[in-house]
From TrEMBL, chains A, B:
Occurrences of domain PurM-like C-terminal (ranges): 163-307
Record-given protein name: Hydrogenase
InterPro entries: HypE, PurM-like_C_dom, PurM-like_C_sf, PurM-like_N, PurM-like_N_sf
Cross-referenced Pfam families: AIRS, AIRS_C
Xref: NCBIfam families: hypE
Phylogenetic classification of the source organism: Bacteria, Bacillati, Actinomycetota, Coriobacteriia, Eggerthellales
Protein's organism: Berryella intestinalis
All residue ranges annotated as the PurM-like N-terminal domain in the record: 36-150
Entry similarity comment: Belongs to the HypE family.
PANTHER family in the cross-refs: CARBAMOYL DEHYDRATASE HYPE, HYDROGENASE ISOENZYMES FORMATION PROTEIN HYPE
């Protein structure tokens, strides 16, 4: 086997066949992939179900970091985006853009990690593509994953469902992923519990939907952090999203790192968290379902939805511990480039 | 509006919202995209239909070339891969990996070209993602498109259906795309009719299937050219794929360029051609359907499928004008990197 990626691995010829057989099929060969046609043929959803479809490219740097790697991120990120619609994630495609010279050993580790995350989420990698760019025109490996899920009949989630009076939950501590990447990149050393939270949350979402069938919507607060998520929700719902700073779970080590670096943890990226808006009378049930799920032990009720002030428009707001309320701004530019 | 891509355009914050609104929504806003949730929700296929799913990343260099650009390629490539299954292509996702400093003007041209190709193919861009990498770690723009199509009941295409006695058709002249990219890159000047053939071929495929319902399979001879396609078919079918060199349509200008550059046109990439294997008694009907389709005027019957010699295994073979037969080898390494 070759030890580094070469341009010929993207050629459509026999070298490409070799990398497909020895790296990709080795990690996650299924019936559809092995069939060798240009498109995977998939069974349709059951009657009454609809299709959820979402795509994400991953360019995180570095590729390996405490608690995960670009492969785990690439599977979990798309699984979570598909699952936010209430869908059961079923199938993933995977497109690699590799840079000439990248170690095959690293690529194998990444593929093994993808296979592991896919197995945990219960999704199958059914179709793929590999391109190779010349040295100096990429950054080792970029991965696109695109996912298909099936939405059960009767489930219809989305930011537009949010109503004043609804409650806002988060499935765990914020800021872990962004601070992990930052500390790797700058060779800073925080405490040992600073590691990525990257995780597939489809099972947690399914548990919440079973316990709280009137749930309005889910969104994973990735780039831009929970600030972006709450601002998007406010705009979709034309309502204010108001959270209490004291009730937002943050690990002390992450809070300390944010303070030192001058970051607002509300704007730091997460890769294994869900923000969830639920009807007030189902909030306790939803919270209990989260807390009894894997990855949901630190879930918390963090706020509520209010009528917006028409003269000001819809806003995300945070109540500070000293009793004030400030606007939670969307990140303007870039705080931590390439965190996913 | 900003004039170049900045890291903040990939931030998940308000700069990202701006590039989405002003570039992507401007080019191809549909109901699902505008809804603003993380996953597009799509109507399921009709009863009896199955789902076709295919992904492709595009890293072609340069981004603009005679007859097309990376955007047209990105839509047509995935539409064609989905269509090879016999599916009606319906939905595309689109993931951009942009390099800091890339001109927004170019990105707008690319998006307009994607919108035009999507309209011609009858597919909709329903979900997307944008990442930005720092200067020197990408190459302006890479695009992943992933497609969903619905396969009508009763249609089941694939290389494994091929039988000895079947006929091999190609939908037009070979080598146009690869020679176009080569001539741009090396600033060679061939005749004015050397331009990419990039085109959506789903309507051509539908016409062939209507005229020749026992069609075995389609494949678009992209990277690796028709040599790779015929070798893949031979291996899937466990049969020999035998073509006549004289019957393969090649433009004189492309043939001349190949001769000058030392390329085998059978290994040069195409982006708007289909190889099709049909039952012998439907070959004429399939050929007539191709020829009456847009993009199929130069279609030709180029060969047939034969029993393989067990001691030699399945091969792709070409009969030369002087009466010999040689093995049509799969490209080993890379002839023209980054042609798609």
């Amino acid at each position: 086997m070759d030890t580094t990626v070469m341009l010929g691995h993207g050629s459509g010829g026999s070298m490409m066949k070799r990398i497909i057989d020895e790296v990709f099929f080795e990690a996650y060969a299924g019936e559809e992939l092995l069939r060798g046609d240009d498109a995977a043929v998939l069974a349709p959803p059951a009657p009454g179900e609809r299709i959820a479809f979402s795509t994400d490219s991953f360019v995180v740097s570095p590729h390996f970091f405490p608690g995960g790697d670009i492969g785990r991120l690439a599977v979990c990120g798309t699984v979570n985006d598909v699952a936010t619609s209430g869908a059961v994630p079923k199938y993933l495609s995977c497109g690699f853009v590799l840079e000439e010279g990248y170690p095959i050993e690293n690529l194998k580790r990444i593929c093994a990690s993808m296979a592991e995350a896919a197995a945990e989420a219960g999704v199958r990698l059914v179709t793929g593509d590999t391109k190779v760019v010349n040295r100096g025109h990429g950054d080792g490996v970029f991965i696109n994953t695109t996912g298909i899920g099936f939405i059960p009949a009767g489930v219809s989630l989305g930011g537009a469902n949010i109503r004043p009076g609804d409650r806002i939950l988060v499935s765990g501590t914020l800021g872990d992923h962004g601070i992990t990447i930052m500390s790797c990149r700058e060779s800073l050393s925080f405490s040992a519990d600073v590691k990525t939270d990257a995780a597939p949350l489809n099972h947690l979402i399914a548990a919440v939907l079973a316990a709280a069938p009137n749930t309005r919507c889910f969104r994973d607060p990735t780039r831009g952090g929970i600030s972006s998520t709450l601002n998007e929700f406010a705009s979709q719902a034309q309502a204010d999203m108001v959270i209490d700073q004291d009730s937002v779970p943050v690990k002390p080590s992450v809070a300390g790192a944010c303070e030192m670096l001058g970051y607002d943890v509300m704007q730091v990226a997460n890769e294994g968290k869900m923000v969830c808006v639920v009807a007030a009378d189902e909030a306790e049930a939803a919270l209990a379902a989260m807390r009894s799920s894997r990855y949901g032990a630190d879930a918390a009720l963090i706020g509520e939805v209010r009528e917006m002030k028409p003269e000001r428009g819809p806003k995300a707001l945070i109540r500070t511990p000293i009793g004030g309320t400030r606007i939670l701004d969307m990140l303007v530019g870039e705080q931590l480039p390439r965190i996913c």
